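Q: Structure for this?
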Amino acid sequence: MGTDGAALSVPIRVLVVDDHALFRSGVNAEIGDSVDIVGDVGTVDEAIDAIRAKKPDVVLLDVHLPNGGGVAILEALADSTSNTKCLALSVSDAAEDVIAIIRAGARGYVTKTITHDELLDAIRRVHAGDAVFSPRLAGFVLDAFSSTKPVTSDPDLDRLTPREQEVLRLIARGYTYKEVAGRIHLSVKTVETHVSSVLRKLQLSNRHELTAWATDRRLL
Amino acid sequence: MGTDGAALSVPIRVLVVDDHALFRSGVNAEIGDSVDIVGDVGTVDEAIDAIRAKKPDVVLLDVHLPNGGGVAILEALADSTSNTKCLALSVSDAAEDVIAIIRAGARGYVTKTITHDELLDAIRRVHAGDAVFSPRLAGFVLDAFSSTKPVTSDPDLDRLTPREQEVLRLIARGYTYKEVAGRIHLSVKTVETHVSSVLRKLQLSNRHELTAWATDRRLL
DNA sequence: CGCACCATCGGGGACAACCCTGGTTGAACC
DNA sequence: GGTTCAACCAGGGTTGTCCCCGATGGTGCG
């Protein structure tokens, strides 16, 4: 069914980016009949130029390239308004590779162990706006995204008394001492005392660092 | 092939959470032969209790429930060390629903238009550690993840002179006037002047709002 | 050339932030 | 009953923030 689907409508215009010429010609031979391969290049700079010039529908993008890798290409094109989709294609199944290139804007990530039909399907789905991942890899992105390091028992935070934590939260949100005092019915001087001991206990020097500290731990 | 794959090995233990009893019995009838449905519940509290007690392999989780929805269940279980996977199952295909529940820790999201076989496949893949999405929905997560809304031509930002933007960046990072002055070799008074005009042009009242404004636009 | 705008710098003042040294109360613990 | 600690409050001082008023040069423009 692979070839038919593409041949019926306008074929998808694909650019292949990989620093190994043999691999590029392999891709060309495998899927060249089913999609319109508008070019194949081997360097970051060539890729950027080719994407700007030919505006392919989908870029088949190798992750590991000299001079910055696929991420460099995606970042260079981040501001362009084209609707070119990028599908990362790599031998690596390492979480950091996947996360880096997805964060840079790729719409999918498949390993080079993929079959002919699966690759065609992936290209079509990316072109249609879906995200495509080899089975295990999607989990990496979710792990990074859901960012669930609750750190329920934060040793630093535990050293603060309940009242100090309460004040900390309000200060980190940008309220002045006076506003905090009014909000939890204290005197300004008491708020100052609490903030001082919070700063001392956390080894911070001012409320700006405190805000950064709090946002780091997501206690807002 | 659906039934065979499950019957061969130990069947996957599934808990169904949905506030509509009819839907629960529908799921039960559809896939009860292929997986081991260890319970079906209709409220957040029941779900939390049931997950703790029965430790299912996969929770089929409705997104929209009274008292907090599926997100509340995921958050309540975030600290538990079980390896129960949650697959969100919803009528909604809204980006905010998808992002919220994935951020809370769900490992997949499919709409209720799914077919019998697709649902079984989704359950198996989630159980195996993959992430599963209905076609269009994965893109929502990637959009939220790659956080690439540079807003290169921000009209507000353009109204600032280059020097003002430079000072803005440093102030937003928490440096004091004195530190900014030392860093770009100006007098403190000049820094004050620049900050004042930045605050005036952006209609902000203090540096806390400025920090919030800057982080909003990711100019750090 | 006058004019607007930018960048640089200053004085003075009001207020907020931060630190220090105190104090009182109440609850918990030995 | 003495100790310890959280929570509350106060005075006084230094520094930082933000605003007002000004000033000087440089640049580009009609």
